[in-house]
Structures are given as structure tokens and as C-alpha cells.
Amino acid sequence: MTTFLGFAELCSKIEGIAGSIEKAEILASFLSDLDEAELAIVPSFVTGSPFPASSEILLGVGPSTLYDALSRASGSSTTEIKDILRRTGDVGAVAAEAIGKRRPSTLSSFIGGDSLSILDVYSRFLQIARASGRRSQSVKAKNLQYLFSESSPLEARYIARLALEDMRIGVGEGIVRDAIAKAFGATPAEVERGYNFTGDLGLVARRAKEGRLSDLKVEIGRPIKMMLAQIGSGIPGSLAEMGTAAVEWKFDGSRVQIHKRGDDVEIFSRRLERVTRSLPEIVASIREGVRTESAILDGEAVARGEDGRPLPFQEILKRFRRKYKVEGTAKKIPLELFLFDIVYLDGHPLIDEPLRERRRILEEVADPKILAAQTVTSDPEVVAGIYEKAVAAGHEGVMLKSPASPYAAGKRGKNWVKIKPVMETLDLVVVGARWGEGRRATFLGSFRLASPDPDTGRLEDVGWVATGINDEMLAELTDLFRDLVLVSGEGMVVEVKPEVIFEVAFEEIQKSKSYSSGYALRFPRLVRVRDDKALEEADSLERVASLYATQRGRNGPGSG
Ligand code: AMP
């Protein structure tokens, strides 16, 4: 039996190391000493997931439940706890400090008790996840309180971070994959293949230990990682590189992976979460439109507006998130299915078959009504024609796929290339910033952006940007903003004097209640600092609104 303290010490050691190779080595040696049950848990734990990525189980602990539990276990008030949080910006530090200062009256169970094992923590997490109904929050808090009251400060640090699924030790799936490979004498590629088929690092680790990685196969009911697309250089360039391409619309919707066995249908989202209950009409169209006993299908669900054009992405999200009383939302936001791939048919995995063969099979089993149309061509004019139609219809552009390519689960490679219109950039005013974490704690790492309202002259928020900033820029930006810091806000957030303009690229502008402008940028990325621009030259909310209106081809060719 391995203690949770052992795990906490491992995390603490890894947290202090910068290099991924060294992190993987330390983790590998820890994994190699675990028994089977622990090996099922630890690979997810170190990445900050209480349960495997593919599992349906959600812990469902929010900060307030956590602070409540911590307060009861430590005797500190929630105000004291929030003060520590404001000072440190890290729930782990909060838990360690509160438990470290534990009042004597609450000490009894700790001194007398046995030390927590990894399995104890996991089984409490399971009870927390299973709590439902009216009393669920108090059941969750009680179990967490038990864990904290049995913990030393170091254990409390990682229990708190794990409960909020934010480990901050710089271990992602890649490092765990390398560690499993190293611990059990497999290659990282073999481990990754197993992971892509199962989404469960713990299961992969156990099979690797038994030398049975090759037993892991695509199975109905267990989502496989989805194949992803790269950004292409443009129609002529991308087509020249691929030679002949299978061309499809790039639908503006949300990815779905559908598992069918008889009338049983299970749907997984892009993040491999089960969303079956939210999407009854997709279930129905599979039952009606797919003529085979069992299959795993890949496609896009599109929300159709009254004018026939796709609705904005956030409308689809409303469908994916809705679990109860689905009918009302389904009426308002009806979904259509466009299948573009098949990876498993009646007992046979198809991932290693070339796309052209998978497409032949897909056309054989699926009704054309639910199929994404596909054209195989090497003529750039033909591709340009398809692209124009897709954009005019309100979709994103086109996908070019290599007809000879296998289904590369979990990979973003050059066999699927997306071509989309280049979105314009916005010049926005930086009005706030947030200090980084861990290695980046001495740098300002993300920046709050605003756009002036032409009517009031006030700067209104449109969101945060943290992408597109490398280590070198971090230092430069921190220097640039150091003298502009006005007030330190909550936690790690500061307000800065509005002086600097960022040119920011993004995928899309969304309507949003989260920011005062009423808009938010999806996937914002810093292009450059516009030190050549004065504050008055920032893009106004009027421009944000007009870009919002013209995006997604609403005024594009052919849409009138
Ligand atoms: P992106 O999210 O920009 O990386 O683009 C990849 C996503 O485009 C996929 O995950 C799908 O959700 C979506 N998509 C839309 N149409 C297609 C298509 N015909 N083939 C593959 N992916 C598509």
C-alpha cells in the first residue's frame, strides 16, 4: 500500500523541477513501485484529474465547498482562508497553511489516525462524485473535510489542488506517457497508441506493466481520441502539397463521436465527454440513418438557425451542456448531423484503413441525409468553388484530407488541413494583467483587453489574452507594465494604466455576458505590441460589433 504522503512528496519533488525528462524519470520510478489498483489511479492524479479523461465520473467540487471543508477541518474561518488565498493565489498553499495552523481541538483525529493511502483518497473522491440530490454539497464537504483532517500540510496541498483539478506541477499527458514507457519498457509511441484508443492513462499503465499494451483496441463504448486538423497555407499551396484531396465543408458546429451497438447509441463530445442525453435528435438520426449493427462514427453537429444558416458556436454549447429538460432547448436550437468518418464497423477497427476506404464504407452504411458531402479533386478551382459555397452558407471554410491517410487518433497532422478565411485582427487596450504561476510567478502572464465605447469614451472589457507570448516576451511585457500597475486587485490580478495597445488575433467574436463590452474573443492570441499606436487609435466597440456581424460569412459572397 502506498501512502498519499508518498504521492504528495512525489508531486512536491516534481514541482521543483523544470525539465520534462527529469520529471518523467522521477514519475517512472514512482509508477514502477505501485500495485495494480494504485497504478489505475496515479497516472490521472498527477495530471490533476481525479478520474480518467474518458470516465463519466465528475468530482463536482467548487471553490466554496472546498473552503468550507478546509475551514471545518482546520478551525480557520472562511475569511481567514480567503485572505491566504488573496496573498498566495494558490489553493494548495491555502490548504497547507490552514492545516499547518490547525487548532488543537481539531487535531485529535490526525494524531491518532492511520496515514491516508492513495486508495483512501480515491475512494473518498468517488463518494464525493457520487453524492447527488439536495444534500450533495454537504456530503461532498464532509468527505473533503475528512480528507483534510487526516492530512499533513503537504498532503492537504495536493488534495486541495486535485479537488479543483489544478495540480500546477507541470505534468501533462506527454510526461505521463513517457514515464509509463520508461517504467515498463515500452516505447512512448506504443503507450500513446493505447492512450488514444482508451483515454485512460491508468489502464494503459496497467497493460504496459503486464506487457499487454497491444491488447488495447478500439472498443464500442470507449471513446477514442479524435483526429485533428492543421491550419493550411491556402488552397493552392495546401492542395499542391497533398496532390489529390478529399474536400469537405468545414462545418461550423461541434464535434461528435458516435458509438452505435444495435439501438444503443452513445455520443461523445470533442473532449470525450458523454453528451448522449443532451442530443436526442442525433441519437434518432443514427438509429434511423445508420444501417449496421455496430459502428463508431465521427462527425459534426450543427445548430440550424431559422434562415438555414448555422447558429453561433455558443448556441450549440447550450445544447451540449443541457442535461435535463432537453426538449425546450432542442426546439429552439435544432441540431443537424454531418458524418465524415467511420473508425470501427461490426467488430473491425478501421483506423488503419485509408480514408478513401473508410469513406466507401461510410457511404455504404449511412444515409446520404446525414453525410458530409465529399469531393475528391486535385483542381484548385474546384476547391475554391466548394470553399466559396461553404463560407456563403455560413460555415467556416473547407477541410482537405489525404485520401490515403489512416485515422490518426489524437493527432494534428498534415493529412487533415483546414482552410478558413483569415480573420482580421483587433488593436485593443491593455487595462489589466495577472501574475503567472509556478515558474512564471514573477512575470505578468495574461492581459485584460478592452475597447473604447465611442459613445461614452469608456473602455469596455472584451476578455483576456495569454497565448502567443513566449518566455522572452514575458520578461519584456512585465518590464513594460511594471510602472503602469495602478491597483493590485483580488489574488494575482492587477489593474494597469491604459497605455499599451495589443494587436490581437482570434478565431471568432462571440456575444458574452462575462465582459462589460457584451462581446468576447474566442481563442485570442497576441500578434504584437503596437507601440506605434496611441490610445485613441485602438479599435472601438463599433468595429468589434461590425466584425461580429460580418464574420462567419454573414456578408460573404453569395449571401446577399
Ligand atoms: P479546429 O477546431 O479549427 O481545429 O478544426 C477542427 C474541427 O473542425 C474538428 O474538430 C471538427 O469539429 C470541425 N469540422 C467541421 N467540419 C469538419 C470536417 N468535414 N472534417 C473534420 N472536421 C470538421
Q: What is the name of the CATH architecture of the domain at 228-419?
A: 2-Layer Sandwich
Q: Supply the number of helical segments.
A: 22
- Rounded Rg: 26 Å
C-alpha geometry: globular
Broad CATH class of the domain at 228-419: Alpha Beta
CATH superfamily of the domain at 228-419: DNA ligase/mRNA capping enzyme
The distinct bound ligands, ions and cofactors come out as:
adenosine monophosphate
Q: What structural class do helix, strand and pairing data support?
A: alpha+beta
Low-confidence spans: 553-560
- Determine the oligomeric state from the structure: single chain
Taking the sheet with the most strands, its summary is:
7 strands, antiparallel
Average pLDDT reading: 90
Strand portion: 15-25%
CATH fold call of the domain at 228-419: D-amino Acid Aminotransferase, Chain A, domain 1
Total DSSP E strands: 19
Q: Roughly how much helix do the residues carry, as a percent range?
A: 25-40%
End-to-end Cα distance, whole Å, is 69 Å
Protein name: DNA ligase
GO molecular function: DNA ligase (ATP) activity
Catalytic activity: ATP + (deoxyribonucleotide)n-3'-hydroxyl + 5'-phospho-(deoxyribonucleotide)m = (deoxyribonucleotide)n+m + AMP + diphosphate
EC number: 6.5.1.1
